[in-house]
Write a structure and sequence with these properties.
Helices cover about 40% and strands about 15% of the residues. The chain is built from five helices and four strands; from the N terminus they run ααααββαββ. It has a four-stranded mixed beta sheet. α2 (about 35-65) runs antiparallel to α3 (about 70-80) and α4 (about 105-110) crosses α5.
Amino acid sequence: MTTAPPKPPRGRHAKPPSRLSARWNRLVSPSSGEFGRRRRLIVAGGAASAAVLAAAAVVGFSVTGSRDAPRAVAAAHTGKEAARPSALAGSKAPATRDPDEVPEAVPYFETQDTGKKVVKHVTDVRRSGDFVRIYTDLGEGDENSEPAVSLCEWTTKLLEEGGDDDPRVFVHGKSSDNGSVVLANKQSDKDDCEVGETR
């Protein structure tokens, strides 16, 4: 049994139906015959499509996160690929590594210093021209100390294993008045990493 569409309200303040509501009422009103069936199928298909699009938007939102989902949904409607967050205005490009850094040094020191008694003093390792400089938190009085000499020897070995035939190494400590002091070094093949009396 079919029900008739609701009648428009009557009275002084009743407004005439808009064009859109009038068309909708004609479209969904029960009609007999093939034409009526086609209209009902079109309406049902439109509602199903809207439901599928809404479900896709919810899934896209939950999978890609709150920041990327609106872009993905908009891309689905426009046929364009969603912009990646790194390509958006205001996002920062990944930082490039400093070419003077020697990132493999500390992991190598750790293989030589299983107790981490020496490597804990290292604050930075960098290239400076032909030299590799190891900066530490050791003090000025740690000149030729076991940690300083060990760091110099390990760095020399690391460079030689990397193909450097003429490694040059300086191990630096803190100084209250001079910035950083040399605690151990290897300036030639004959050097044993200990600094002499006069530097």
